[in-house]
Specification:
Blueprint: E1 11-13, E2 17-22, E3 25-30, H1 32-38, E4 41-45, E5 52-53, E6 58-64, E7 68-72, E8 77-82, H2 92-95, E9 104-108, H3 120-128
Antiparallel strand pairs: 1-2, 2-3, 3-9, 4-6, 5-8, 6-7, 8-9
């Protein structure tokens, strides 16, 4: 498992999710902290392509050897791609949460929602307060 990291180019949600925004699209996933808290991920239940996800609402579920956990959307949008590789290799969420362990790609409903997300430095401060 990699060491704790929070890439500067990403934006973070207080529910331990990240967003990589590229124009009107975003790639979403869970943070190093979230995957570390969950432990070994054994199953990922994604939304369907075409499904609407709503900021601050659950859109997927991740199961680990410890527990099942809902994944909370950092932004609203339409699911345009799901990381199909996680069906056979959910451990990628633990091994590479910001790379091969991404969860979904969405077409953003309102790119301005990103203004409410945290920069890496602010997310680290949030974790220090836990």
């Amino acid at each position: 498992m990699p060491d704790a990291s929070y890439p500067e180019e990403l934006l973070y949600h207080a529910e331990h999710d990240w967003a990589r925004i590229e124009g009107e699209q975003a790639t979403l996933g869970i943070t190093w902290y979230a995957q570390d808290s969950l432990g070994e991920v054994v199953f990922y239940d994604p939304p369907e392509v075409g499904a609407a996800i709503v900021k601050d609402s659950a859109y997927a579920e991740i199961e680990s050897v410890k527990a099942a956990s809902e994944v909370i959307a950092p932004l609203s949008g339409e699911t345009i791609e799901v990381n199909e590789a996680l069906a056979d290799a959910p451990e990628r969420i633990n091994e590479d949460p910001y790379g091969e362990g991404w969860l979904v790609k969405v077409k953003l409903d309102d790119p301005a929602e990103a203004e409410a997300l945290l920069a890496a430095v602010d997310y680290r401060k949030l974790l220090e307060g836990d």
